[in-house]
Amino acid sequence: MKRLHSLFATLALLCLFGNPVAPHGSAQDVTIEVKTDNDSTVKVKKKGKSKPPFAGQRPEVNVAILLDTSNSMDGLINQAKSQLWNIVQEFAKAKKNGKTPLLRVSVFEYGNTRLPASEDYIRQVAQLTDDLDKVSEALFALTTSGGDEYCGAVIAESVKRLDWSSEPNAYKAIFIAGNEPFDQGSVDFQGACKNAIQSGIVVNTIHCGNYQQGVDGKWQKGAQLAEGKFMNINQDEKVTHIPAPQDKIIIELNTSLNQTYLWFGSQDKREGYALNQMQQDSNAGSSLSSRALIKSSPLYRNVGRDLVDTFEENPAAIVKLGDAELPKELQGLTSKQRLARIEEMSKRRAEIKSQLADANRQREAFIADQQAKQAASSSEVTLGDAFKAAVQEQLQTSGFEVE
């Protein structure tokens, strides 16, 4: 087993950094032979074209979403739930030097009387995480209850509590949405916003109501202090869903995509990952097509949870797992058989993602055409629209290329 571990470590280095004699940026195939514990040989072929053109650390994107969950904000929470995957798509369109960003999202709620007054009615619902299923789960667990909304306090807490990226060129942003005056509470919003931008974190403010009320309520001032964007939305506006002919095939492909996941860890964890993935598919409702497209992108990653994603990033990691931590279909197999199964699932997943990309191009063309026809009767601005306006502008300012 020690010999196998050593050989897998060599495999990991070669897979992660490519063929050392190949020109930088080339897409040559790499075939590696690995001897297992029973002296059989496993050939692992890594196609250069099957991996994104990354040569080092992915650019980081950290986003904290701070939502007012007081009584009047049911519409806001519903918009957040229904538009999550459309919002994430804005980051999926971005690249920096050809690299897709590593996205981590956090969620806070504030202004809910069910939360302790001693903590300014604030709760961190999800830490900064790349597990987008966890983010979706956190949003769908939110409920409203009238209270006092302390914007300065929740901004200060999000800056202090979260493990924000230390990368100098990371895009770090807070999006705070609510409707009460921005200057409520004992924590000075001006100091909180200034501290955020001094930490490299932009604060975007989304006022639920008309423009002038947002200005008078200091929402605009908060954004100006932290170099962010001030926006106002109608939180009660119903999100318009445009069905497309491609939705059926995308949903079918999503089901097939789920079947390529090889969850690992304790039995409870494996079952939890699989169930939560399916639950968030269900929660997506009419936005399932948008969610499926994110699942086919590099933003949806399950390193440390799924063997395929983990193997792509660190092939040596799988030898550290005990038999009981593996999916049932891999338990009792030889090392060679396990590798073959992972490679099979990796290949299958890549095929499904390619089919999803083709379906998406057709779907986007159809929806763009329908939106153009409906332009004269366009709806008011929603949470998703506000995110799109700020994200596209700020990512470009941060050096990203946005489609």
What does this protein look like?
- By secondary structure, the chain is an alpha/beta fold.
- Among the domains are: 2-48, no CATH class; 60-240 and 379-402, von Willebrand factor, type A domain (Rossmann fold).
- 44% of the residues lie in helices and 15% in strands.
- It is built from 13 helices and ten strands.
- It has helices spanning 2-17, 74-92, 132-140, 151-161, 189-198, 211-216, 219-225, 247-258, 267-284, 288-295, 307-313, 335-373, 383-397; strands spanning 30-35, 41-46, 60-68, 94-95, 102-110, 122-129, 171-178, 202-208, 230-233, 401-402.
- It has a six-stranded mixed β-sheet with strand order 6-5-3-7-8-9, with helices on both faces.
- Strand 7 (171-178), helix 5 and strand 8 form a beta-alpha-beta unit.
- The longest helix is centred in the C-terminal third of the chain and has 39 residues, at 335-373.
- It is globular, with a radius of gyration of 23 Å.
Outline the fold blueprint.
Layout: H1 2-17, E1 30-35, E2 41-46, E3 60-68, H2 74-92, E4 94-95, E5 102-110, E6 122-129, H3 132-140, H4 151-161, E7 171-178, H5 189-198, E8 202-208, H6 211-216, H7 219-225, E9 230-233, H8 247-258, H9 267-284, H10 288-295, H11 307-313, H12 335-373, H13 383-397, E10 401-402
Parallel strand pairs: 3-5, 3-7, 7-8, 8-9
Antiparallel strand pairs: 1-2, 4-10, 5-6
Helix pairs in contact: 2-10, 2-13, 3-9, 4-5, 5-7, 8-10, 8-12, 11-12
